[in-house]
Amino acid sequence: MSEEIPADTAKNMAVQLINEDKEFSQGLPVYFNNCLGGRDIDQNYHVISVFGSQSSGKSTLLNLLFNTNFDTMDAHEKRQQTTKGIWLSHTQAVNTNRGVRSDPGSDIFILDVEGSDGAERGEDQDFERKAALFAIAVSEVMIINLWEQQIGLYQGNNMGLLKTVFEVNLSLFGKNSKRSDASSHSQKHKMLLLFVIRDHIGVTPLESLSSTLTSELENIWKDLSKPASCQDSTIYDFFDLKFVGLSHKILRADKFLEDVKNLGDNFSNKENNDEYLFKPEFHHMLPLDGWSMYSENCWDQIENNKDLDLPTQQILVARFKTDEIMNETLTKYFENYDSNIKPLILENNKDALIEMLVSIKVQSTGMYDDLASRYTKQIYLENRIKLLSKINDKFQETIELFIQGTSTELIDSLKKSLSTNDDETSSFNEILIEISKDITTRFHEFISNFKEKDLINEESIAELNAKFTKFLNKKQNELRAIQVKSIISQFKKNMNFAIKDNVISYLANPSDDVWDRVMSFFKRSMDELLIKFETTSDNSMKTYDFQVGFTPELNDTIYKRLRYIAWYLLNVTVHDYLKEDAVIGILREKFENSFRYDENDTPILWKDENQIDNAFKIAKEQALNIFGVLCIAKTTDNTEIIPDVRVEDVEVEDDLGIYHLERFAHIINEIQKEKILRQFRRQINLSVLDAKRSMITTTTH
Ligand code: GDP
Ligand code: MG
């Protein structure tokens, strides 16, 4: 495993990206951080790789061209053999005719492949193939380094390498080359093969060397076994080819340097430069922070001889990175969310809450967009939806909590609004419905404030509405129940007064038609008090009452209940009053009135016993007659009074208890009757005795 090498301003130090054991460096993030000094370069970077025979001067060229510090043979006499592996160096310093340029936005990463001279040993061939695959997967430009004298002579090594490069490239991009969707990045992807011809003496002009090389390359391409989908493809579908000659480094050192600078120009100056070497279609379109993961994944696949599918790799990276960015965003903006939101909820500060939520949403999506939009668009958008849904989930919770508080408050205000409402032309229920409507409107307005800012989704709105409606209905029913209760208790009170005052006075001094009077009074009072529950036209059909406004069903229930209560009160009053002693008293009074007093209420002065006996007989008859009337409640047409209500029709309240309505008329039973009569007789016999005594006294005078 290689160690990180700190960046050096003088020379750009390299890091061993893949070591001799074919392990991928874990020091890459640190290396990037060191050489970039924390700059975020996004996709503004380029990757170059170099291939060629061992000791063909690759590292020497790279170091000169890019101010890097790759190992060269000269520099490391001690180390006899160059280490196998792939080195990576960052540079901004390109050697050009305008000097060593270190332009901003000119970050280049260079891969120096070492030990790729694998004609002899099988194991090296394996590494060479893997290195080529890797270089193609991650770099935009591949420098192919070769000597002038190698050109034209069929050299197994070089051409073998190129064959490998072509094959590997086809395996990566060939299967997608005929794909119809033009948006696929891999389809448009190309790579630049930059042939650098070393020790170019100049006798053979570059053009003829180029054409020799080109035809060799085309021949290799022709003979290549290609996948079915790209049988007809040409080398130019996959590669751009460029050729550069460099003079002999030792024999023509000045010219060599000049050639290097000319080449450097094309790596650094893109303005008005047709020869500029980096083209957009070479780029792998990954932000640098994704590139390290991408290249590691690629190497892992390659090293384990797995199928390397670059679009999949890019998507994997995009997925991982956008996930990471999404989570960072959520952490950043929701870390203190609860504690920031809480006071606003407690203060019931809607505007501030909306403002805060909007700002969180704008800022967090802004952060995500900034960082994640650099990755595969589809994945970036997928995760953006995920992010928004997570933000929304969080918001829904808050908003629901907030709105529920408000809806509770609104609904609780219903009772107050109802009691302060002085509308006298509407019924209770109409007012209740009117105020409820008003509250509902205010509730909807409240929700729409959040909706306008796109802070609440339809699902939540539906849920909140349902809860609100349910809650409101419950409250309305409660208020109706209270209203019903108050109607009933009011009725009970009034009815009770009326009955107590009148019925008792009828009973206390009963006439023959006492029950007619009781009943006509009772019916009259009931009619008066029940008028609002009864329709005049059809007695069986109860309609809305003006002042209560309940449904016919509820009115009907209340109506029946009240009638039941009225009968109950009458029953209790009558039966309580007509107890044995009271009845005896009533009879006695009746008797005495008739026996002792004349029509002018003057006490009668008895003349003889006969007169007393006659009067006694009449008075007793009258009293007994009334007794008959009191014993059983019948109207004068001899109809027993039976309450016209049924227990089944009402929910009996606890304090009413159940009584036997059918026994209403039976006021005094046989045993009571005998007792009363015995008492009554004794008392009137005494009265007679008294009368006779008084007569004796008067006559003896
Ligand atoms: P690499 O193994 O391809 O990286 O080769 P090096 O850069 O280590 O160079 C190998 C040897 O070739 C060194 O001794 C260099 O001095 C020498 N060398 C480098 N560039 C040139 C060149 O342009 N012409 C000649 N003739 N020799 C070179
Ligand atoms: Mg080297």
TrEMBL record:
Q: Which GO terms describe its cellular component?
A: endoplasmic reticulum membrane
InterPro entries documented for this protein:
G_GB1_RHD3_dom, P-loop_NTPase, RHD3/Sey1, Sey1/RHD3-like_3HB
Segments forming domain GB1/RHD3-type G: 42-282
Where would you find this protein in the cell? Endoplasmic reticulum membrane
What are the binding positions for GTP in this chain?
Answer: 52-59
The molecular function terms of the Gene Ontology recorded here are: GTP binding; GTPase activity
Q: Which residues lie on this side of the membrane: Cytoplasmic?
A: 1-701
Q: Which GO terms describe its biological process?
A: endoplasmic reticulum membrane fusion
Q: Which UniProt keywords apply?
A: Endoplasmic reticulum, GTP-binding, Hydrolase, Membrane, Nucleotide-binding, Transmembrane, Transmembrane helix
Q: Which CDD domains match?
A: GBP
Keyword GTP-binding listed: yes
Question: A single Pfam family, by name?
Answer: RHD3_GTPase
Q: How does it sit in the membrane?
A: Multi-pass membrane protein
Recorded superkingdom: Eukaryota
Per the similarity annotation, which family is this? Belongs to the TRAFAC class dynamin-like GTPase superfamily. GB1/RHD3 GTPase family. RHD3 subfamily.
**Protein name (database record):** Similar to Saccharomyces cerevisiae YOR165W SEY1 GTPase with a role in ER morphology
The protein's organism comes out as Maudiozyma barnettii
Organism placement in taxonomy: Eukaryota, Fungi, Dikarya, Ascomycota, Saccharomycotina
